[in-house]
Design a protein that fits this description.
The chain is of the alpha+beta class. It has helices at 29-40, 101-113, and strands at 18-26, 43-47, 57-61, 67-72, 91-98, 117-120, 130-134, 140-145. The termini are far apart.
Length: 149
């Protein structure tokens, strides 16, 4: 039996998070970032975390304020429009929840109550700055904490 859906938030309730990134899977992050830069304008930033190959994650800070991120996906297959592409993520959303571990804990409680499914919530005792969930239709999204600088 499926539990009843969570009631919609009241106007006095603050949202759970704010939009951070739209992340697009692709075979060549730099090339796709350059395409969108030429389309939307903005600046490209290449990030390399320890153990990552340079260019596995590229961010476009567009002139309109939207941040598009491009993530290398091994074996990427373009979607078969207009049909669903079985087993292909293609896109996910990053949502900022605040700088503290407690912020991500509170946000997690709320998204689970709204019907999200945890996919990867091991944040290594606060070392990793994100946790991954699926929305009710199965699309992945991340709750991210951005430590204050």
């Amino acid at each position: 039996m499926t539990p009843p859906p969570a009631p919609p938030p009241t106007p006095s309730e603050a949202p759970v998070a704010r939009m951070r990134n739209v992340v697009i899977d692709c075979p060549d992050p730099r090339r796709l970032a350059e395409f969108y830069r030429d389309l939307l304008g903005g600046e490209i930033e290449t990030e390399t975390d320890e153990g990552e190959v340079e260019g596995d994650w590229v961010t476009l800070h567009s002139t309109g304020g939207l941040r598009l991120c491009f993530q290398r996906a091994a074996g990427h297959r373009p979607p078969n429009w207009p049909h669903a592409d079985a087993g292909s993520q293609q896109i996910h959303i990053d949502l900022d929840v605040g700088p503290a571990v407690q912020d991500i804990e509170r946000a997690q409680d709320r998204v689970l109550a709204l019907g999200a499914t945890p996919l990867d919530v091991d944040d290594d005792n606060g070392v990793r700055d994100f946790r991954v969930y699926a929305d009710p239709a199965g699309h992945p999204f991340c709750l991210c904490r951005i430590p204050e600088s």
